[in-house]
Specification:
With about 70 residues, the chain is mostly helical. It has one domain. The chain contains five helices and no strands. It starts with a helix and ends with a helix. Belongs to the annexin family.
């Protein structure tokens, strides 16, 4: 609520993204991966970037939340 009250819409969205990825990284990145792979066509370059830049131990959390 404080974020929404004190910020513009774009800045609010950015802060919410930071908070989500910092507090529940497994859940956040599981959703990112799901969104990249759902439906017709896959954003291969972004999918590869997310998988390659994610630490091995973080992948365990992502797997659990996926």
């Amino acid at each position: 609520k404080a974020i929404k009250r004190e910020t513009s819409r774009d800045f609010e969205d950015a802060l919410r993204l930071i908070v989500k990825s910092a507090t529940r990284p497994g859940r956040y990145f599981a959703k990112v991966l799901y969104d990249l792979m759902k439906g017709m066509g896959t954003d291969d370059s972004t999918l590869i970037r997310v998988v390659v830049t994610t630490a091995k131990q973080d992948m365990q959390y992502i797997k659990a939340d996926f």
